[in-house]
Amino acid sequence: MVISKNRWLGINGFSLNYYFGKMEQVIEILLLRRDFVSKGEIMDYLYDDDIEPPFDDILHQYFYRARRRLKQYGLSIEHDWRRGYRLTGEYSVVIKK
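Now predict its structure.
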């Protein structure tokens, strides 16, 4: 998964070679934090203060697509109403610049 023009992110030894959009940014923050991330933190990560999200439930679409993408790597996204979202499963992350 490409994080920016100068680096990429690999999951369990595999690189995700896709266009780096909002769904990939959701995966990125979950991979790098390794703990629960609140909905507010994710929205702040995805959208600057001057950019409004297209609609309120946009995260549900991102999580739906991210769950499908991560399933092939043996990962899933856990949701806890009080704490937020996190990745479950065994994984290693490699960031190359």
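The chain has a mean pLDDT of 78.
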